[in-house]
Amino acid sequence: MTGAERVSAHSAAGSVSSDEPSPRLRPQSLMLTYLGNYVLGRDIAVFSGSFIDTFARLGVGEHAVRSTLTRMVRRRLLARHREGRRMHFGLTPRSEGILHDGEDRVWRRGVLNTDWDGSWTVLAFSMPESWQRVRHDLRARLTWAGFGSLGNGTWIAPSRVDVRPIVAGLNLNGHLKVFAGPAEEPTDVPHMLREAFDLDGLANGYRAFLDRWDRPAPL
């Protein structure tokens, strides 16, 4: 991103204060939220020190921020740009695709899938134990795509999903099996859902969000 505008995350995010503790979130989740809100679509890179200053307000320490930036570069979610002694970080095509997908989910798609035809996508994978990073990346991508784990490398999603863009670049030919179709008896679908997805945790998260923000003048 040579010649791209450099901005301060500190000034872009502004200051948010609250007397109530924020829920503990993973630094990478916070980072993606920040990048989606303030960097996506602007062709900019952000100074590492600005990330550190901004995330300190959220209770994330400097070491965690630097580790997260390094990890995201390694996973091709951020591109590193040096300008003298200062290091800046910008989006990559991969992270832009993820964030555009998230933007579409949040602002354009409905909360409920009213067109579901009862089909499920079942994905099973098996790979060598030494492929830990690939396994981690695949699980993260499947979770983001709406899959839940039934254990032993078997994942399900309540719709027909084209998994090709999900697994692109992981070189998993011969290590995946994908099927789609309705659940047949005697499958206990409600039990399967609770096994694959943390529905109670999801509900509690929504309640906590509403308790914190669904009020006049929440800040």
Automatic annotation (TrEMBL):
Gene Ontology biological process: DNA-templated transcription
Annotated spans, Disordered: 1-24
Transcriptional repressor PaaX-like central Cas2-like domain sequence ranges: 114-188
Superkingdom of origin organism: Bacteria
Pfam families named among the record's database cross-references: PaaX (PF07848), PaaX_M (PF20803)
Domain Transcriptional repressor PaaX-like N-terminal: 26-92
Annotated Low complexity bias: 9-18
Signal peptide residue numbers: none
PANTHER family documented for this protein: PHENYLACETIC ACID REGULATOR-RELATED TRANSCRIPTIONAL REPRESSOR, TRANSCRIPTIONAL REPRESSOR PAAX
Name used for this protein in its record: PaaX family transcriptional regulator
